[in-house]
Amino acid sequence: MISRPTRTAFRLLAVVLGLAYLVPLVWVVLTSLKTRQQVLEDPTGILFTPTLATYADVVLDGLGAIATSLQIAVLTTAAVLILAVPAAYALSRRGGRRWGGAVAIALATLLVLQMVPQPMTVIPLYSVLASWGLLGSLGGLIVADIALLLPFAIMLLRPFALAVPEEVYEAAELDGAGRWQTFRSITVPMLGNGIATVLAIVFISTWGEFVYAINFLPQGVVLPVSGLLAQQSSVYSTEWNSLMALAVITSLPLLLVFLVSQRRLVSGLSLGAVK
Asked: How confident is the model at residue 12 (pLDDT cuts 50, 70, 90)?
């Protein structure tokens, strides 16, 4: 049982962490409601006449970036799930010490490769996409994002597949179900929390991806959200009110995804942490 002083300490820690996250968000919203002149005169001021003029100036740019990011995030998330779910199922179904050892080595290799800094992969991917004729296209960027996120998705889904009781598969086999029917009718529905967790994480990661977006998309196309936000800062100045207004607008889809998947996301990450 947790003692009263410990409970009080946890509550104080929660308040401090909440303020640490909340204060920057409030500052972003307040700055987005200022004019450029108000930002220059009093950047940290909280007493001012709010205006939506900045939102009116940047809303069209923001919607264009959201449309581009939405295409990339939806297609990447769908492709990652289509590949990762059967891969996690296959890695969890076969038994034996040799197979278990091979899977452990493969997963450890994937984990090490995930630690490679993303900028180091740009030049090799640049060469691969050029040889495939995908350089400078939305398809090439989506392929690069899939290569980046697929190993992580498989590692996250495998504990969910291992959690399915073996007796369920045995009962399905006794009823005459084939492997495909077992996978489609039993495994996929029982991986609901895992699929929702991977969907939310991959979607959010792809939405904010920056390095591949600025390197693999050609000049002249509507940049995704991350590229548009970077454009607001130049060598000579930064349009802080426009930057913050765009940050608020482009965060709304992510907020919606998080609110919808919050319960499954917490449950999924908890299972992935203990398996």
From this structure: very high
